[in-house]
Write a structure and sequence with these properties.
Length: about 375
């Protein structure tokens, strides 16, 4: 019983994190000695950090926000620094407004960095919300001479250094590839969907019982079909959405992704699809592609290297996905004969995944917050 409880508690913590990660969006444009920027910060994160809801009614009004504009700017700009060629470039606020992203309202700070001369290399230090939220990320979009570099600030990567002359199309490709890997590793809903399909790959369903497969190639080819189908499907919709051919509402996409996790895990408890799980992977992979596209849109696609960035991000997603499969399959194959794998990992894990994904589904479909992050 303690094993089941521990598993449920672990996945419940993932439910809190997967509702919507804490992100801010930082855009910098460098033109000689002129550095201008825009910083979008979620009001829900600022409320947690400095408190914006003066009357405590659960809603942040324009009046409450306007009254704290100076505090917001002071708090944020104290956690961002910019240096050119080793010399600090003081930041100054140039504008303040509000914008809406797919997940809610954001404060938008416009600012400039005062550098004495055009820098050849820059260093950016970012520490917003890291003191109380280790999951927070700062998504940077850096533009210089028509080239765009994208990367992510995390507590482990809080300081980044760039040699501006080295920004190139190839570095853009690597940058977007790195972000693709990072996104799949922190995309718990994508991971749990894939794992739900992979858990039975080392077993066979016969006479209502799970039996271990006889040979590793049998499990390998089952996994190959599932991963290939998922990859092809989400690559199609990721490309169509990123290029602006198809657009779907964010809440619909995120709710459908949560529903796909529920159904994939339920199929392990009450098998309906059986050996054709690759069909499920393809069908729901089309939905997951729209989820990947929303992240890519927030990072920003460079006009001069749009296809290159799109391919790099998609290959990064596949690389991160394959690393998960490579870690999972040998261990699952080794444990396939055990009671522990069949009862705890497959059945217990699937029950826990259904429970967590149902929380996601309710939160996303009804715009609720059932678990505090």
């Amino acid at each position: 019983m303690s094993r089941w409880l521990a598993l449920l508690l672990l996945l419940a913590s993932l439910a809190a994190e997967a509702h919507k990660p804490s992100d801010s969006y930082l855009r910098l444009k460098i033109d000689g000695a002129e550095v201008s920027g825009q910083w979008d910060i979620a009001l829900r994160d600022l409320e947690q950090a400095i408190g914006l809801d003066a009357n405590g009614d659960g809603e942040i009004t324009w009046g409450e926000l306007r009254a704290r504009q100076a505090d917001i700017a002071a708090y944020a700009l104290a956690r961002l620094s910019f240096a050119g060629d080793g010399k600090g470039c003081p930041l100054r606020l140039t504008g303040h407004q509000v914008d809406h992203h797919s997940d809610g309202a954001y404060a938008v700070l416009r600012f400039a960095a005062d550098c004495a001369a055009a820098p050849a290399a820059i260093e950016i230090a970012y520490s917003l919300f890291f003191d109380f939220d280790a999951q927070h990320k700062g998504l940077l979009n850096l533009e210089y001479q028509g080239r765009i570099q994208s990367l992510v600030f995390t507590p482990e990567r809080a300081k980044q250094h760039f040699v501006l002359g080295e920004l190139s199309a190839f570095r853009q490709f690597l940058s977007y590839g790195r972000e693709g890997v990072w996104h799949i590793w922190i995309g718990y809903d994508h991971i749990l969907f894939l794992l739900s399909l992979l858990l039975p790959a080392v077993l066979l369903r016969e006479r209502r019982h799970w039996l271990p497969v006889a040979r590793f190639p049998d499990a390998f080819w089952d996994v190959f079909k599932i991963v290939t189908s998922f990859t092809v499907a989400h690559s199609i919709t990721l490309s169509l959405a990123a290029l602006g051919v198809i657009a779907l509402p964010s809440r619909l996409v995120e709710s459908a992704i949560a529903a796909s996790v529920v159904l994939a895990a339920l199929n392990n408890l009450l098998p309906v699809v059986g050996g054709r799980r690759w069909v499920v992977a393809f069908a729901f992979g089309l939905i997951h592609g729209f989820g990947f596209a929303s992240v890519l849109a927030e990072l920003g696609l460079p006009r001069d290297a749009l296809v290159l960035a799109l391919v790099g991000f998609n290959l990064g997603v596949e690389g991160g996905q394959l690393s998960i499969v490579a870690a999972f399959l040998p261990l699952a194959y080794f444990l396939r004969h055990s009671w522990f794998y069949r009862r705890v990992v497959l059945l217990g894990g699937s029950i826990a995944i259904v429970a967590v994904a149902m929380i996601w589904l309710l939160e996303r479909a009804l715009n609720l917050k059932l678990i505090s992050a």
